[in-house]
UniProtKB/TrEMBL annotation:
PANTHER family: AB HYDROLASE SUPERFAMILY PROTEIN C4A8.06C, PEPTIDASE S9 PROLYL OLIGOPEPTIDASE CATALYTIC DOMAIN-CONTAINING PROTEIN. It comes from the Bacteria. GO terms for molecular function: hydrolase activity. This is Alpha/beta hydrolase. Coiled coil: none annotated.
Length: 314
């Protein structure tokens, strides 16, 4: 296995090392498309020497796997993109990838750069993938997201921390909005005394429901395994856990999304409205799935500006 080594950094007075992301050798740089800003970003190891779950087992990477995507995440990390002119809000960004890869390109670095240019300090989370051998597979991404938002709060003077996620990463962001108080790991330092509740969330073509009629079957299987029971399906359907304490949400979806039907966002919106949680939704006629910051020249490219305005108005 090839490894990417990143220099040691300090966090809260403790020295931490970025993970060696276990990536199968394919004869080329697996992160080739990622720009210099990715490689220059400060890297924060989430857990130090001991992770809250065990069992990691690297999987072979197909020879034709597109570069710029993360797999075999042995140690999760945050990658910090500082704001050009800080506006007082930090963003925890969770890219998508069906819980089987993490899209480091348009849903990762490109989005982080765009947010930083707008004044947001952005942290891209490279979270553990549940199908890579971990015990309690359905909890490992949310463990990482909870820990990540607490570390951001411990590091930043920003009064607000917002979660933003795409696709399966949108499911993770939505799970954080409803499951921020779940006790999923033993506290290990002062950061874990801080709240994991985001102040707001952006859910971009998110997977929300586990209803077979509308869900993304691949994401559900990767998160919960091949034959989840009804309790597991209900537990990881964020729309079923919205309450009055759920943070405000901003939703974006294309009506022609054939991978993750727009009913996912519509169900989340209905749950938010029923709980009287502030919400805004934008449904684009065209865009399909995975459009990231939007298709240039199309209405879908407007959502980052709309999201920025929504956050600034709150």
């Amino acid at each position: 296995m090839a490894a990417i080594d990143i220099t040691r950094r300090t966090l809260l007075g403790a020295t931490v090392a970025t993970p060696a992301l276990a990536l199968a050798q394919t004869g080329r740089d697996p992160l080739g498309p990622l720009p210099p800003s990715w490689h220059q970003a400060e890297v924060i190891d989430l857990w130090g020497s001991t992770l809250p779950e065990t069992g990691f087992a690297a999987k072979p990477v197909p020879a034709d796997a597109p570069p710029g995507f993360f797999r075999n995440v042995a140690r999760p990390t945050l990658h910090r993109f500082p704001a050009a002119k800080p506006n007082g809000t930090a963003v925890l960004l969770t890219p998508g990838g069906g819980y089987s890869i993490i899209v480091g390109t348009h849903e990762g670095t490109d989005t982080a750069e765009a947010l930083a240019a707008r004044g947001y300090t952005c942290y891209v989370l490279i979270y553990r993938l549940p199908g890579e051998g971990w015990t309690d597979r359905q909890d490992v991404p949310l463990q990482d997201a909870q820990r990540a938002i607490r570390l951001i709060r411990a590091r930043e003077a920003s009064p607000r921390v917002v979660a933003l996620g795409y696709s399966a990463g949108g499911h993770l962001a939505a799970s954080l909005t409803t499951g921020y108080a779940e006790s999923l790991y033993a506290p290990r330092d002062a950061a874990d005394r801080l709240s994991a509740r985001p102040d707001a969330a952006g859910l971009i073509y998110p997977v929300i429901t586990t209803d077979p009629a509308f869900t993304h079957a691949g994401s559900v299987a990767a998160l919960l395994g091949p034959a989840p029971d009804a309790a597991a399906l209900e537990r990881r359907s964020p729309d079923r856990h919205v309450d009055a304490k759920t943070p405000p949400c901003f939703l974006v979806h294309a009506l022609d999304d054939a991978a993750v039907p727009p009913e996912n966002s519509l169900r989340m919106l209905a749950a938010l409205r029923a709980a009287k949680v502030p919400a805004e939704a934008h449904l684009f006629q065209r865009g399909g799935h995975g459009f990231g910051l939007g298709t240039p020249g199309q209405p879908s490219a407007d959502w980052p500006e709309l999201f920025d305005r929504w956050l600034r108005a709150r």
